[in-house]
Amino acid sequence: MKLLLVVAAALLGVVASAQIEIQVEEVSYTDPYDGDYPLLGYVSIPDETPAPAVVIIPDISSVDDYEKTRATMLNKDLGYVGFAADIFGPDFVDANSSVWREQAGLYRGNNSLFFGRIQAAVDVMMQHPDVIADKVAVIGYCFGGTGILTYSFLGATDVVGAVSFHGGLTDFPVDQTINHPVLVLSGGADDTGTEVDTLENSLNAANATWQITRYSGIEHAFTNWNDTRGRYSERADSRSWQEMATFLGEAFGSFEYGTNPPNSTDVAAVDYDDNGFELTGYLSIPPGAEMDKTPAVVIVPDWDGVSGPDGYEAERATLLAQAGYVGFAADIYGADKQQVESFDERVELTTLYRTNYTLFVSRIQAAVDLVAAHELVDPESVFLIGYCFGGTGVVDYSFAADVTKVKVVVPFHGGLTGLAPIETDVVYPYVLVQSGGEDDAHGNNTELEMMLDAANATWEISRYSNVYHGFTHWGGGAYNPLADWRSWDAMMGVFEMVTKSDHDDYEDDGHGHSHDHGDEDDHGEEEMEGEESTNGADDAESTNGATSACWSQHQGFAGLVLLSMISFLL
């Protein structure tokens, strides 16, 4: 219990700053796997040690102020030892892009050499007096993100987790078991859906525990605030940093994962109707809710119905209220069909609503209208989530015409094939998809992305390895505590992001753009990342300014982590 609160308090304390000053020390070391090749890295050490360590593998432009800033953020934001590792050697720091390209080609063509460079950095951290030796993780950007995957596929055993940010998803050798969890963060306009499918298959062949998260309309180098081509995305940078932070917290054993149902539900039955069709939902109000200011979440139930005041959806509504949201478990089938026990009747009802999407959308709209009109609710902050059958419904709803009251839709293990036709030029809500990697109901992910892109949706899709349909249902055979926790945390993070910013803040990241899922640029050497990052004195100043927005987003993330952790203690 004490550990959870300490971690949450540390997050809240350090992310309040809107700017960051680089705080690193030089570390001269060698690669013993390559004749003691000389290397120069940079370490940032938190006030409280020993601590877990995170090794950063740099992009193609070698170690510069970008990696030093990330090392400092790991220290100040998360309390970890951050180490910006060297791959090429100190003589290549001030090289030009053609030299960096040549070097990158050397390492990408020699997996053993690349592995050795990364392992040398891991060894340095494992032996560092301020590091907990068995709590070392690796992350990498662009070229470094490719290195992270190479390192993992070659059977690294000394790290507890690996994170790849916009790394090249090339063909990786699968002749080892991956011994640590892997998080892949990918731009929807960077990697093709086919490349991601191939990576999933390779990770499965290596028996890996993995999560792959994709961001719509996001190009290569989306975390690089120095990018001169305008590819930096505040949305994707903030969201990917949050995913990394919770992933590392789990890998280091800093906090528990999984959500727990409340000891009891705290809901009130609400009778309402859809054009005269009688419905009964269940409302949960957070303590201290303010008039016209409280965000709200409408929950569309799974295929057995809303299940009454003690059902699954009422439990989720209660959890949302504990986190500060008005939670409403909506009714779809009618006041006389709260809990549908018969399998045949469930099939009959779900078939009715899936084939008559206009009726499905109408039922959902009735709940949205009811909640948006509630005296405590901020009508500009209404969100919509759904489980299984309900997950299908919230996506169908987002495709309907004139849907502007809902800011975010979240399908949890929804059936995402045979969706409703798109009736709008631009999908207004942010679409956050949370699916199991083994869930056939998800369908073909490439086709889903193409459909969302055709609808000009801003989307984010996460898939979790070895996770099946129904993974959020406590006590069910498919329940997966890790996927449940990570998907719930992702949802809360997106709610917070949208609540704190106007819709236009993220609109340009995806809305109004079409995305080619065919052959795209190689995102390794050809990206000329060296031309996007400066190494002079001005770089630190521009970094401090450019990270301001990113850091402000992290304040909300820390608060959500604290709320989530406290919920485990109640």
UniProtKB/TrEMBL annotation:
GO terms for molecular function: hydrolase activity. The keyword Transport does not apply. Residues 521-532 have a biased composition (Acidic residues). This is Dienelactone hydrolase. The keyword Hydrolase applies. It comes from the Eukaryota. Residues 1-17 form the signal peptide. Residues 503-520 have a biased composition (Basic and acidic residues). Residues 41-251, 280-496 form the Dienelactone hydrolase domain. Residues 503-547 are annotated as: Disordered. Pfam families: DLH (PF01738). Keywords: Hydrolase, Signal.
